[in-house]
Design goal:
The protein contains 7 helices and no strands.
């Protein structure tokens, strides 16, 4: 301990476990590091601290360090694990429907080339637009 001018000892901060119901002073700090769900990040951070019986002097600083280092990856993993339990429809709610396009002319001839001449497959296939490829593949299934 350091003596103050009045001769009293100043208190040194001690390491402590994470406070119950911890909320970082700047939860949205996580957004700067690509964490789209700060609430989930706080939950993962608190679970990590509790499970490992971590002790730190400054939990807000520890939160910021986690956001800059290991927390973005853990949040992505947790989101992937959560989405596994959802239906494809639920997972793709944010996606816009694809506008239907008309079938490209000559798709049958193109499909025949791909099945008859493997040497042309890659070269010809890469010339097609991605949506044209999808249409051809769909038609070949029929």
């Amino acid at each position: 301990p350091i003596n103050s001018p009045q001769g009293e000892k100043q208190k040194q901060k001690r390491k402590s476990r994470i406070p119950e119901n911890f909320q970082p002073a700047d939860k949205n700090y996580a957004l700067q590091y690509g964490i789209e769900n700060p609430d989930l990040a706080v939950e993962i951070f608190c679970d990590w601290a509790i499970a490992g019986a971590k002790t730190y002097i400054d939990w807000n600083l520890t939160w910021k360090t986690a956001c800059r280092t290991w927390l973005p990856e853990k949040v992505l993993q947790a989101q992937a694990n959560q989405s596994r339990g959802k239906s494809l429809e639920e997972q793709n709610q944010h996606m816009k429907p694809v506008e239907p396009i008309e079938e490209p002319d000559g798709w049958r001839d193109t499909a025949a080339k791909f099945t008859a001449r493997p040497d042309l497959q890659h070269k010809e296939w890469t010339k097609l637009a991605p949506r044209e490829r999808e249409v051809i593949l769909e038609k070949m299934k029929v």
